[in-house]
Structures are given as structure tokens and as C-alpha cells.
Amino acid sequence: MKAPALAFTLSLFMPVAAHAAMPASDVIGQAIDGFIRPAYGDLAERTAALEKSVEALCATPSQASLDAARAGFAQAAQGWAKVELIMFGPIREDNRLERMLFWPDRKSIGLKQVQAALASKDPDAADAEKIARKSVAMQGFGALEYVLFGTDADELATPEGAWRCTFGAAVAGNIATISADVRDGWNKPDGFAAIWSNPGPDNLTYRNGAEAVTELMGVFINGLEMVRDVRLKGFLGLRPEKDKPKQALYWRSQGTTASLAANLEGLGGLFRASHLADALSPESRWISESIEIQFANGAEAARSVKGPMEEALADPARREKLDYLGTVTSSLSNLFGVRLSGEFGLTAGFSSLDGD
User: Fold this and answer.
1) Cα 214 off chain centre by
2) Residue 354 placed within a domain
3) CB 235 within 8 A of CB 243
4) Residue 144 and residue 233: Cα distance in Å, rounded?
5) How far apart are CA 212 and CA 228, in angstroms?
6) Which region is the signal sequence (predicted)?
7) Rounded Cα gap, residues 198 and 191, in angstroms
8) ∠ CA 41-29-190 to the nearest 5 degrees?
9) What is the total count of domains within the chain?
10) For 307-324, how does the pLDDT look when each residue is reduced to its tens digit (9 = 90+)?
């Protein structure tokens, strides 16, 4: 994976062309306090609720409790989607990023491991502490989705699904623990947040404001590339006959488009919280206004595509909205990578997804 390599023209964040000077520490501090910490706090609450809902399903199996657990999964997955594109900081410790969501899984490694655990009733897979030491593919949202929505998942509503439910509860507990640990990591007074928001010559990670803001800009540029080229194009072909609905993330739970919408909503929330727009000249404010409009349009388009992905792709009207989502993400990539970067005097010519 290639490291981000934005090149700033000045050692301080805002170049002469900007309307108002903004210290990098202010920009980063606003991003952390205004979005990152609240979003991870929300995720910790959602995953804790998910864990309780799966435990309740195990205690009293019924269709109602299964529906509640599935609803809890949807809420938690969307909470994760809002922050998952911030791929640095505490989430990078202890393989937490991969443990939360092992995807794309092009060789179905995770699926095979989950199916094997269900078939063998592996006792370690039913223990939240022990599963945290097993393969990352068995620990996160992908594994739990299969437990709750995959083949024979309806048996969870009956006593016959007891072991499967215990496995699911262990995975849900693991997800909740990771979420809480990442939340706490961002809230530590001497943790990563302090390092990122206080760049300087004595800071071994961020030696100046340019490096600190490079990290932030990389979230938008790499995140939009991820949404468009990996998440969306992973299942949406150039032509309908090239579509691959079962390559879509969360296709079993019909949560694909809700996750894509939450990705864009999260990036939009981060952009607003950082107040990057305040550094633009009056003549350039159209850039931030366009960014806001495109984030809203993209999220609305994604959320309007409902139902099983195979059916959505077969419906010209819904498929057109997915095509439009691709257009929106490309437009946003241009706005961040060319327009906004140009205003701030930096060159955005990198990719974290090209495998170099």
C-alpha cells in the first residue's frame, strides 16, 4: 500500500491564496472534537446495543428477537460506515481495522472460516475473548452478517439455533469491545489525538502542520476512491451483464446502499467539522458549497436504492441511481483532489489503493 504523499507549498497549512490563515492544529482539533470523537462514541453505543440484542436473541429465540438483532446489526454497520474511512489512529492498532471488517474477501476466506466454525461448533468461536485471537475474517461485521442473514440463519428464531447464536454473540461482543477501545483511544489525553493535533519539530509523527493536514485530506481523497472503485465498482459493472450483486458488501442483509450512504455522510460530517471551508476566499466558496451538495446528493441517491441488490441492479431506474452515485463520487474526487487541493497549494497525486 502506497503511503499518502501530498506536497504542500508551505510549512504551515494555509497558503497565501487562502482567505483566512488557519493553524493546522485548529483544523485537526475541530475534526477530532467535531466529528471523530462523537462518531466513535456513537459507534460504541450502537455496537453495545447490537451485542445486547444478540444476547437477547440467544436468551429468548423468536422471530421478534431475531428481527431486533438484525435491526441492531444494520444500525451498527451504518455507524461503522461513517468512520471506517478514517483508516489511521487507534483503529490501526492490534489489527482493529481488519478485525472490524475483513473486506473485500475475493477468495471467500472469511465465508469459508465462518461456515467451518458453524459446522464444527468450534468452542473457541463461541467465546468473545478467544475469538479476538482467531482469524480477523471471523471477528467482525462480515462474520456476524453471515450468522444473522446467511444460509439457515432463520434457525436463530428457534432453540435449534442456540450454538449459532452463541457464536454470533461472541462476534458481536468482539465488535463492541473493539469499538469501545477505539473510542477510548481517541479520548486519551496523551493519545493519538494529541499527537495529530499538535504537529511540530518534536513530534515524530507529524513534524509540521502540512503533514498533519495531509492526513486529513487523505481521508477524503482515499475515502472517495474506496467508495467508488472498491465498494461501488466491485459489484456495479460497466454494463448490466457485468454486474456482480454478490460481490457487494452486506448484500445478504440488504445493507449495501445504506453503508455507501453512511460512507458519504461520514465524509461530509468530517468536512463540515474541520471547517476547511473557512479558509477559502469568498471567490472560492463555491468549492465547499459544491462539496456539500454532492455529498447530500450522493447519500440520497444511495439510500433511495432499496431491496435485494440483484433486484436493484435488474431495475433500470435503481441501477441508474447507482451509476449516478459513481458520477457523484468522481465529481467529489475532483473537488477535493484538484479544486480544494489547488486552493490550499498542494498537489494530490497519490493513491492508497493501487497496491504499490
Assistant:
1) 19
2) no
3) yes
4) 24
5) 25
6) 1-20
7) 11
8) 75
9) 2
10) 999 999 999 999 999 999
Tens-digit pLDDT profile for residues 62-71: 999 999 999 9
Write out the three cell numbers for 101. Answer: 471488517
User: Residue 220, class by beta-carbon neighbours within 10 Å (0-12 exposed, 13-18 middle, 19+ buried)?
Assistant: buried
Question: Rounded CA gap, 69 and 76, in Å?
Answer: 10
Residues 2, 8: Cα–Cα separation, whole Å? 18
Which residues make beta-bridge pairs with 8? 346
The residue behind cell 475475493 is 106
Could you report the per-residue pLDDT of 218-271, keeping only the tens digit for each?
Answer: 999 999 999 999 999 999 999 999 999 999 999 999 999 999 999 999 999 999
The string of DSSP letters for 120-146 reads HT-GGGG-HHHHTTS-GGGTSHHHHHH
Q: pTM for this structure?
A: 0.92
**Domain boundary residue among 154, 187, 220?**
187
Distances (CA, A) of 27 to 14, 40, 240: 10, 19, 43
Segments forming the whole domain that contains residue 82: 37-187
Q: What's the CATH code of the domain at 132?
A: 1.20.1420.20
208 and 222 together in one domain = yes
